[in-house]
Amino acid sequence: MRTFKTLWINLLGVFVSLLVYSTINNYFIDRTVSRNFFQAIVAAAFLIGLYGILFWMYFILMLLLLDFVLDIKALKKIRYKLFIQWLITSLPVLYWALRYEQQRVFFLIAIVSFFITQILKKYLIKKIASKATRET
């Protein structure tokens, strides 16, 4: 149950990293369209939210499913279970990165940022567990 309280860190971390990449790409790199910075942010948000809807559905479903299946009872095995969750979730996304050349960087950034947020999630779960043990 501890892991369900920490899902937000994965969602927020991946979304923010993709938003930053897409904004930079829309504003600085893609010079085919002239736009201001606000338009670049809005275009990036639409790109992530609408174009990547299959990615988000898969990502959220896998997070929920694997958090339920790999319920972390013993904190000493947390690193392995989070790595397994990252690996199982990232392999199809890696396949998409290899298959679809235009979105390759998008998917690779999502994989890397998901790995970083898994590391942060480990510390957050430990913090929640220590807080729960102090309260009892």
Automatic annotation (TrEMBL):
Domain of life where this protein originates: Bacteria
TM regions (residue ranges): 7-29, 41-66, 78-98, 104-124
UniProt keyword terms in alphabetical order: Membrane, Transmembrane, Transmembrane helix
Record protein name field: Uncharacterized protein
